[in-house]
Specification:
The protein has helices spanning 28-41, 53-60, 130-136, 139-145, 163-169, 204-218, and strands at 5-8, 15-18, 43-46, 66-67, 75-76, 79-86, 108-117, 125-129, 149-152, 173-176, 178-180, 187-189, 196-199, 224-227, 234-238, 242-246, 257-264. By secondary structure, it is of the alpha+beta class. The protein is globular. Strands 1, 2, 3, 4, 5, 6, 7, 15 and 17 form a 9-stranded mixed sheet that branches. Bound molecules: fe (ii) ion.
Length: 271
Amino acid sequence: MPDITVTPLTNAIGAEIGGVDLSNPLDAMTKEALSLALAEHLALVFHDQDLTPDQYLAAAEAFGPPMRQHYSQHHMPGYPDIGLVWHRNGQRPAERWHTDHTNREHPPLATILYGVEIPSAGGATSVANMRAAYTALPEAERHHLATLSTVNSLDTGKTDTLPEDWEQYSKPIVHPMVRTHPVHGSRAVFFHITKTLYIEGMSPEASRTYLGDLIERMIQPEIVYMHKWRKGDVFVIDDRATMHRAHGDYDRSESRVLWRIIVEGDRPRLV
Ligand SMILES: [Fe+2]
């Protein structure tokens, strides 16, 4: 077995990975071990990494092929598969619970964040275990959710979406609201509240109300890991069975820069 350590961070979600330098090529056994650790723990932390953009992209490939992010104004110059998460780009921290890029036929397997500049306080990223959230629902609601599908597009509330991105990425895409994890075999609740145009058979208003209510009821502190950033952290989030959010509670005169890569996953399905 590769010489890596996997240390759980909470009882429900998250593990710290030791013994891996992501600036070096990873062998097949290490990649397999990381894929299994991600499926099991849903969020992986690698501390003290020192990566160029090329090294970071190569490390991300261990999890899947990088996919193009749809707000192209935030791409790193010269590296269109790396997104810059940076409020000085005119972005606001994504503070609502969500999973990424559900408007794609093959949404990301994982979102990978690399901490480049970290504020002195605040600015964490939280991740919730939506597998545990599903299990905790009453049986009747689990059955009901398993019959529902969401229709997804780009966020309609954003005013800075470029016309070419809208053209390419706004086509409605239908996903099941409960999906089976292709590696772990378990089920999880899967939706993005502001990318859901509506739940099939429901009005947009009723859909939004129901999804907001679900988030409120499902995401409890015991299924959440809050990652307090250190410079050099790489944080890998399994988008197939989690939701995440940023915390905007940091001083905007300080810099918070994360490099984001998303890697492509399977087409969500319920089996
Ligand atoms: Fe996100």
